[in-house]
From TrEMBL:
Cofactor or coenzyme needed: heme
Protein name: Cytochrome P450
Main location: membrane
Residue ranges that the Swiss-Prot or TrEMBL entry lists as coiled coil: none
Species this chain originates from: Triticum turgidum subsp. durum (Durum wheat)
Membrane topology of the entry: Single-pass membrane protein
Keywords: Heme, Iron, Membrane, Metal-binding, Monooxygenase, Oxidoreductase, Transmembrane, Transmembrane helix
UniProt family annotation: Belongs to the cytochrome P450 family.
Residues given in the record as heme binding sites: 211
Single GO term (MF): heme binding
Stored InterPro entries: Cyt_P450, Cyt_P450_CS, Cyt_P450_E_grp-I, Cyt_P450_sf, Cytochrome_P450_71
Subcellular location: Membrane
């Protein structure tokens, strides 16, 4: 086990060394245009100011990858479960993905720009099943009152994103899985970009503690779900062809997981 962990650690270390080296000594674009700076460029620019070491930067990148991967997995599992319980949405999503991605061996991030229903489906999944239901802890910076209750300064505050996403005073049909709500023109009523500006929809948090792997995680979800819809039809084991759904019981913790693992049968269309 120790040898396996050491081998895995070396693979991670080699990967991040290569990525950091590419950012320290970037190759010039053939078009002559300057490449846009990304998150790693930002971390490298802060090395001297904040005393960051290369190992510090690697540790931050590991956190981003792990958070993005777990978020993607949990959301994808819930999304597939909701689609099995809402076959009309499954059919509509497959029609969009297959019409846009026809004749492709694999759908990539570059193919997703016109798949609005795919993005809406993922956002609806995040609304109903935020992977971190209580987000990261925040602290109150000053005394304040909420509904008559005094919240002293420096109080640890947990925000229930799960409850916010199902609040009937904020959402029409909150218990229904309805991706179309994110396709409607709501005059900016809902922050569909998930940047933490609308406190009714906070799947990735808000403020200074918003998830740094948000873009990575969402892009991963899009590509994974698009390919699952593009390449396969799906059904429930031992219930193929019956239109049966799946149990949606949840297990609460630091992350929101299904009580039972999702098992589905893929079929080539």
């Amino acid at each position: 086990m120790v040898v396996k962990a050491q081998r895995l650690n070396k693979r991670w270390d080699d990967l991040f060394n290569e990525i950091i080296e590419e950012h320290l000594h970037p190759s010039k674009p053939s078009s002559g245009e300057q490449q846009a700076a990304d998150f790693i460029d930002l971390l490298l620019s802060l090395k001297e100011e904040y005393g960051l070491t290369t190992d510090n930067i690697k540790a931050i990148l590991v956190d981003m990858f792990e958070a993005g991967i777990e978020t993607s997995y949990l959301t994808l599992e819930y999304g597939m479960a909701e689609l099995m319980n809402n076959r009309h949405i499954l059919t509509k999503l497959q029609e969009e993905v297959r019409s846009q991605g026809k004749k492709l061996d694999m759908i990539t991030e570059e193919d997703l720009s016109s798949m609005a229903y795919l993005r809406a489906t993922i956002k609806e999944t995040l609304r109903m099943h935020p992977p971190a239901p209580f987000l990261l802890p925040h602290f109150s910076t000053a005394d304040c009152k909420i509904d008559g209750y005094l919240i002293p300064a420096n109080t640890r505050v947990l925000v229930n994103a799960w409850a916010l996403g199902r609040d009937p005073s904020s959402w029409e049909r909150p218990e229904d899985f309805w991706p179309e709500r994110f396709l409607q023109d709501q005059d900016g009523d809902v922050d569909t970009q998930m940047r933490g500006k609308d406190l009714r929809f906070l799947p990735f948090g808000f403020g200074r503690r918003i998830c740094p792997g948000m873009n990575f995680g969402f892009a991963t979800m899009e590509v994974m779900l698009a390919n699952l819809m593009y390449h396969f039809d799906w059904d429930v084991p031992n219930m193929v062809g019956t239109g049966a759904g799946v149990d949606m019981a949840e297990s609460f913790g630091l992350t929101l997981r299904r009580k039972e693992k999702l098992q589905l049968v893929p079929q080539i269309p």
